[in-house]
Amino acid sequence: MTQTAQNISVGTKTIQVSEIFGPTIQGEGALIGKPTVFVRTGGCDYRCSWCDSLYAVLPEHKAEWHAMDTRQIFAEVERLSGHAPLLVTLSGGNPAIQPLEGLIDLGHEHGYTFAIETQGSVAQPWFAKLDYLTLSPKPPSSKQVTRWERLDRSILYATNARHTHEIQINLKIVIFDEDDYAYARYVAERYPAIPMYLQAGNHTPPQQAEEIDVSGILQRMDWLIQRTIADRWYGATVLPQLHTLLWGNKRGV
Ligand code: SF4
After folding, report:
1. Among 26, 96, 183, 206, fewest CB within 10 Å belongs to which?
2. Which of 45, 138, 202, 203 has the most ligand 1 atoms within 8 A of CB, as the residue to mutate?
3. CA 54 to ligand 1: nearest atom
4. Structural domains in the chain?
5. Which of 50, 65, 94 to mutate to test the pocket of ligand 1 (most atoms within 8 A of CB)?
């Protein structure tokens, strides 16, 4: 993507960063298997019952986070990637609560592309600058409440950008049970034009870093595949969380 000098905004705003790591592969969703550097921000407006990244969510972990500006983050991305313009995945926590617009602008200047993973609870106009927007609204098992108007607005910001550049919008929902499945069906009906990725949830507590219940995850995935096929829901793509199968709940891989 090319950007004009006028719309580059490399500010000195402070961004809370939990960790920057990679290159590794994206383990889930539409970009599964793609090499990427992750920038995981600190802080989240949700408290999902099964969150596996509480170290990037809870204020009690704040002392482990780093307050960084755009240039410091980008310097680390460049160091890790060896200056190869890879995909950068903005994750969290909820990265949408951080001022990431300048990082996207700076990275684009150097040929990097940007994906964000967010639940869609905070809609930002700068979503329009992304190359990939993955929205992962949280189903009932998370014990969170979806604010639909915010999800609508997140999609609108990205959709409006399509007249200036290619931006791929995807939905991704973690499924644990029938209620989650019904929620995913509703989301797909609400946004029929957006590709939907479903993934079987990992029920192993995050403190069990390596001993996850792989057979339990695969059984749930099998159920999910049978469920979508029986419903003739052919618009859904069912995927595992590849990183979980490979590396369990380990951080930084
Ligand atoms: S939205 Fe994501 S990071 Fe935030 S609490 Fe839920 S699972 Fe954890």
Report:
1. 206
2. 138
3. 8
4. 5-247 (3.20.20.70)
5. 94
Q: Is 33 labeled as ligand-binding?
A: no
User: Does residue 173's CB lie within 6 angstroms of at least one atom of ligand 1?
Assistant: no
pTM for this prediction: 0.91
Query: For the chain, what's the residue count?
Result: 253
129-162 burial by CB neighbour count: b if 16+ within 10 A, else e? bbbbbbbbbbbbbbebebeeebbebbbebbbebe
- Which atom of ligand 1 lies closest to the CA of 93? 3
User: Is 137 a pocket residue for ligand 1 (Cβ < 6 Å)?
Assistant: no
d(CA 171, CA 30): 9
Pocket test for ligand 1, best of 18, 48, 118, 176 (most atoms within 8 A of CB): 48
Ligand 1 centroid–CA 189 distance in Å is 24
Burial class (CB in 10 A: 0-12, 13-18, 19+), 50: middle
pLDDT in tens, 58-112: 999 999 999 999 999 999 999 999 999 999 999 999 999 999 999 999 999 999 9
- Looking at every residue in the chain, the average pLDDT score rounds to 91
